[in-house]
Amino acid sequence: MPLQLLPDHSTIAADGSLVIGGCRVDDLASEFGTPFFVYDEVHLRDRAREAVAAFGPGVAYASKAFLCTAMAALVHEEGMCIDVATGGEMRVALAAGVPADRLVMHGNNKSNLELEMALAEGVGRIVVDSFDEMDRIEALVAGGLPVPSVLLRITPGIEAHTHEFVKTGQDDSKFGFGLASGAARTALDRAHRSTAMHLVGIHVHIGSQVFVVDSFRKAVQTLAPLVNDLGLPEFSIGGGLGVAYVEGEESATITQWGAVMNQACRDAGITAQVSAEPGRSIAAAAAVTVYTVGTIKDLPGIRTYVSVDGGMSDNPRPVLYGSGYETFLPRAVAADRPREIRLVGKHCESGDVLVREGYVPDDLAVGDLLATPVTGAYGHSMGSNYNKVLRPPVVFVRDGDARLVVRRETYDDLLRLDV
Ligand SMILES: Cc1ncc(COP(=O)(O)O)c(C=O)c1O
Ligand SMILES: N[C@@H](CCCC[NH3+])C(=O)O
C-alpha cells in the first residue's frame, strides 16, 4: 500500500496497525462503528494554510468537495473564504458561523430564492453565470436588496485533460459565458453598465481532477487580454487541481500550483489579484473510509468478490467516473497484498463497485476492517441513502483525540421527511 496516499499524520503502530492523528483506526471502529470517514484534522488545516499562502486571503475552499459545519469552521479559522454552489451549502457555512462576506456564491442555475438569500445575507462575491441570473439580480436589487460584488464566469474554450463529466472549460458547456461566441464580452459590458452589480472580476474554472498544469496556464493566457483590457481588480482561476488516488499517480502540491499560476498571470501581464477555489486538493487525501468485510465469495476461475458494509452510497466516484482506489487492511498497513479481489458494496446493483482491481493480504477474513484512502473529497458530499443505507459518520482526529463531527444517520432520520 503506497503510504504517501495516507493522510499526513498517519503512522504504523508496533503491531502493524494504522494510526491516524494519534488514534488507532481499530479503536475508532470500535467507538464509532463502520463504515466511517476519518479525517486527519491537521492535514486539512495545513492544506488550507498552504492555499492561503499560495493565493492570499481571497482563496476559497470549494465546499462541494466536503462540507459540514466543522469543516466550514475549520477552513474559515485557517483564513480561507468558502465557495458555496447552492443555498444548502450557503446555509451550512452560515450555520458554522462563517461571516457572509467570506462566501463566494456559485451556480449555473441559482434560483431567485438562493440569490435573494445571498443578497440579503451579504455574501462577499457572486459569480454570475448567465444572462437570466443577471435579470434576477437586477430585479432583486430593484426590490431593495443591496448591490452585490460580482465576478463573471467565463468559459475559455479549453478542453482540460480529465473525465468528460467534470470538464467545464470547453465551448460546449452549461457553465459560464462563452468567450468564442461573444457572450463573454456582451455579459461583461452589461455587468459593467448595470447599477445592480458591482463588477470586480473574471472567473474561470476549466474542470476538476486536472493533472496537466499546462491546461490552467492555457486558460490564463486565453483570458489575459480580457482581464487586462477591463482592468478589473480580481481574477479567479477556480479549482481543479488533481490529486493522486492510486499507486503511480503523482500530483502537484497547492504551493506548486500557486507558483505556476501566479507566474502565468505575471507572464500574461495580469495585475489583478489572482485567487483560486481548491476543493479536492484540500480534502481528498485527508481522509480514509473504513469498512467491515462481511462476505467473501470466491468464484473459481473468475474472481473473488469482497463485500463491505458501505458502497456506492458513500463513494459513487467509481461508478460515475470509473475512478480507481487502493484497498488495504488497517491491521496490516505495510503487509504484502498478493491477493487480487474486487471490492463491492451492499447495494442491489452489480455496478456497486468500490475498487475494480483491489489487492489485499492473503489472510483477509470476514470481520476484518478494510479501508480505502483518499476518500475525503466527493465521497461524503456526493453520498446518498440508496437502498435506505444509513450515511456514515465523519470523525476528525488530531493529537490522539477523536471528535465526531457528523453522526451516523439513523432509521428515524430515514423516516423524518415522510408525511
Ligand atoms: C466553480 C468551481 N470551483 C471550484 C471547484 C473545485 O474543484 P476541485 O475540487 O477540483 O478543486 C469546482 C468543481 O470542480 C467548481 O465547479
Ligand atoms: N464530483 C467530481 C468533481 C466535480 C467537481 C465539481 N465541479 C469528482 O468526484 O471528481
Automatic annotation (TrEMBL):
GO BP annotation list: lysine biosynthetic process via diaminopimelate
List keywords of the entry alphabetically: Amino-acid biosynthesis, Decarboxylase, Lyase, Lysine biosynthesis, Pyridoxal phosphate
Q: Which residues form the Orn/DAP/Arg decarboxylase 2 N-terminal domain?
A: 45-284
Binding, substrate: R280, R317, Y321, E349, Y378
Residues folding into a coiled coil are none
Residues recorded as bearing N6-(pyridoxal phosphate)lysine in the entry:
K64
Q: What is its EC number?
A: 4.1.1.20
Give any Pfam family that matches: Orn_DAP_Arg_deC
- Give all residue intervals belonging to the Orn/DAP/Arg decarboxylase 2 C-terminal domain: 36-376
Entry annotation: catalytic residues: C348
Name the coenzymes or cofactors required: pyridoxal 5'-phosphate
State the function annotated in the UniProt record: Specifically catalyzes the decarboxylation of meso-diaminopimelate (meso-DAP) to L-lysine.
Q: What PANTHER family does this protein's entry cite? A: DIAMINOPIMELATE DECARBOXYLASE, GROUP IV DECARBOXYLASE
User: Subunit notes for this chain?
Assistant: Homodimer.
Record's family?
Answer: Belongs to the Orn/Lys/Arg decarboxylase class-II family. LysA subfamily.
Protein's recorded name: Diaminopimelate decarboxylase
Per the UniProt record, the source organism is Actinomarinicola tropica
Annotated gene: lysA
